[in-house]
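PROTEIN SPECIFICATION:
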Amino acid sequence: METEVANISEELIIENEFNSLINDYLNSNHRRKVEVITKAFALANEAHRGARRRSGEPYILHPLAVAQIVCKEIGLGSTSICAALLHDVVEDTDYTVEDIRSLFGDKIAQIVDGLTKISSGMFGENVSSQAENFRKLLLTMSDDIRVILVKIADRLHNMRTLGSMLPAKRYKIAGETMYIYAPLAHRLGLFAIKTELEELSFKYENPDAYDEIICELAETNAVRTKLYEHFASPVVKKLNQMNITYEIHAREKSIYSIWNKMQAKGVSFEDIYDIFAVRIVFEVPPGVDEKKQCWDIYSAITDIYKLRPDRIRDWVSRPKSNGYQALHLTVMGPDGQWIEIQIRSRRMDDIAEKGFAAHWKYKEGKIEEDTELDKWLKTIKEILENPNPNAIDFLDTIKLNLFALEIFVFTPKGEIKTLPQGATALDFAYELHSNIGDKCIGAKVNHKLVPLSHKLNSGDQVEILTSRTQQPRPEWLQYITTAKSRTRLENSLRKIRRESIKKGEEEFFALFDQTGAELTPSILNRILDYYNINKKDDLFYAIANNDVELPDKPEKLLKLKKQQSENVILRYVKQAFNNSGKKSEKIINKHVSQKETYLLKEEGFHKNFTIAPCCSPIPGDNVLGYLTEDNEVIVHKVTCPEVLKLKASYGNRILSTEWGNYSQYSFLSTLIINGIDKVGMLREISTEISTDLVNIKSLTMESNDGVFEGRISLYVHNVDDIQKICTKIMKIDGVKSVNRVSE
């Protein structure tokens, strides 16, 4: 009886969620295609019947939630809603893509197929599966942008329900989200979703820091409210006099943004002064110019408050490449604090919240407008034609562009080119054409001669200088910052290398053939060892470049003796080690379960795990483990930048870890102390530390114009030791801050 009641209750929940989806759809500007959405829901509901999510709820609630995000939060129509409802059907049930095609047509089938390809293998054994999936994701994105938009919606709902997953899986998914999906959402203009993805990732990776900032925000809310009201009062009065229809409100930074700034600047919450920004969203009356209205509001505000000129951001005249438009300015508020103001029209605000997706119209599978994003997709497609063979490097290359800020550069004829911030003259040359990049010898920036490595700024006018005799060189890779340029340069270098190898091979055999002997593996290895080279292609390349000198007489080639250099010996030792199949003595982990929390015990320390040198965690830090191919556990801080790549690219090797009790072993930690200098400051600090019976490795202090910075390296047992020492040091008169830093 209870089971029947539960089933009726679940059916009611499912029906309510579906009705909510239909209501959202009917309230949008899309054509009314309720029948096809109902048909897609009916098929998905039947296909997933009996299946449940890890949380215990019926599985169909997941595709329903994804469809609601696609409709309400991204603003897409019936095709995308149907694809969202069906996105797991092919992967998890007996239905095929052909079944979907016959029931719903080519377009929905194509999107579902793209989503299935991305998802399949997402939790596979291949260590580089994440990067490969990212590449597949971009490939399908080039065919139909809706694939990636539905995938981002799918990831958003997974993040919203991540609490039911195992800790190790939570780390993997959160890391992958921060590394791949959040920057993609940002690049596509989905700012609200990008912020929520970052926020949820941060919440699960750093729960203590997340809760701490939540508490800090709650405690300081009254102060910020007073600041805002004091600032807004004269602005509201002025705008009302101008007869503008508008909304004005304070918008707080996201918790992740606040934490990020605290880490980047090494400051506490109290030292973050731009926690909120003021946003003004205005309506544009018929016949009124939108840009003029923006600048009128800007003028009204700067009549009241003093402007900070270096913080004006005009994305109204020149929108960002992801479609973002707004006018940002920073003024000195009445309470002596800098306050950022964002001025947007209602249309700009819609784009800022939903991105281009709110405005895209599809006709026969094609986007009608040639937007800036289309140009970006074409660039991605070029990179995909010849990707770096190493999937992880490929991921990093793409990621360079995902995070980059744009600059706008002019050609000599006045044409505008968009490049990432930090792009060089060589990047610009390859942006124009591969041949121009290959033959580039320099550039003129604003009519002044500059080298290839010169970094460009927004507004620069750039003329590329070329020479027929110029060839690309490997050292040029140091001057490259964009993925597109790197791909083009690497293609050219590979072509030149192939030609050099062929030339060197001809020169080698022209000499060797005179010996009349056959080139056996034994003779070839002896020649390679003599020149301390590993591969024959490398030998031929070195011959062509005159990096090695062949003997003057052919018969001497057969008499070359092995050179027992360090590299050669290491090569044979490594080979012998691999053949023996032995493992390092310190690794004794034979079986490590990823379903259980791994205990970092003091007993057998340095045998059952290794401390990562990049972030140097100590007992008490929030950490996770990475399981190497040799079954060794390496422990990183959750916040370590290096671990972000591990979570995204090797998620199946991530372990949930827990510290044991440490009383014997000590860990090296470093503190940075800042304050007002005075006589005896060094003695006071060393006295406070020595009373805690900790071993000081080094203590240095520099004073400059009345302020000092001290650096102390000391051995502690855990985070509690650090906190006790920091508390004592902060009590010293003149000390302003104490922060722990990673070595």
